[in-house]
TrEMBL record:
Stated name of the protein: HTH-type transcriptional activator RhaS
Domain HTH araC/xylS-type: start-end pairs: 174-228
UniProt key word Translocase: no
PROSITE patterns on file: HTH_ARAC_FAMILY_2
InterPro entries: AraC-bd, Homeodomain-like_sf, HTH-like, HTH_AraC
Annotated keywords: DNA-binding, Transcription, Transcription regulation
Length: 241
């Protein structure tokens, strides 16, 4: 099924859907290079393809989506072996860019991931069904557009929180390694190290092993052995007291 146009949409200045649709693409099916005069988001239900946008090429697959921004040249093409099956919605409005920013989508970051559940699949399914509701399709589609954006905004918040947790973990691991580098020649107690870093001892040990692949104690032993091999026996004895 190709583009489904909806000229009977309500005149909503905040956010307005122009059309939506779904398609199981044949091999190498493509669009562009060309521009749109509005925003358009594709979400991939299955298969693979490429998206060229803003001088970058993205290789995409099931569970990913891509944003086309107004007046920016874009091109997309289905894979030759496993062509994608996707849905899309096109929209604009005074606050469209604001909602997209909340979803962390922009000309510089046009890709999103969503494969945790079937909410987006169900949302597009309801859009396709709403088109054929004669009296209220404009209201139904408008509400589903808000729902669609809300889903990817919520996912963006969860992704940002997960990234922040990863950054914090990496920061703690870096602090541990730096402490060992500066104090390896002295007696290091794990409890004192944990207190210095500001973490619970057990959590710190678990975090370090998860990130580095060996226990903190083994890392310390290996670090000291490597350092001992880098200096003369006399220097090593002097460092050990």
């Amino acid at each position: 099924m190709g583009n489904i146009h909806n000229s009977n949409m309500i005149n909503n200045l905040d956010l307005k859907m122009y059309y939506c649709g779904t398609q199981a693409c044949p091999s190498n099916h493509s669009w562009g290079p060309a521009i749109k005069e509005h925003y358009k988001i594709h979400y991939i239900h299955s298969g693979k393809g490429i998206f060229k946008f803003n001088d970058k090429t993205y290789h995409l697959e099931k569970g990913q989506g891509f944003l086309i921004c107004p007046n920016v040249v874009s091109y997309y093409e289905a894979d030759s072996v496993d062509p994608w099956d996707y849905s899309w919605c096109a929209f604009d409005g005074f606050n469209a860019d604001s909602y997209l920013n909340r979803a962390n989508l922009s000309i510089d970051n046009p890709i999103f991931n969503y494969n945790k559940n079937d909410k987006l699949n169900e949302c597009f399914k309801q859009m396709m069904e709403a088109i054929y509701v004669k009296k209220s399709n404009d209201l139904r589609l408008q509400s589903l557009l808000y729902l669609f954006l809300a889903i990817i905004i919520d996912e963006s918040d969860e992704t940002a929180a997960s990234n922040l947790r990863s950054i914090n973990k990496n920061m703690y691991v870096s602090k541990i390694i730096e402490f060992i580098r500066l104090n390896y020649s002295h007696k290091i107690k794990i409890g004192e190290l944990a207190k210095h870093i500001g973490l619970d001892r057990k959590y710190m040990s678990s975090l370090f092993k998860s990130a580095v692949g060996i226990t903190l104690q083994d890392y310390l032993i290996n670090f000291r052995l490597n350092k001992a091999n880098d200096i003369s026996p006399k220097e090593y004895r002097n460092q050990k007291g």
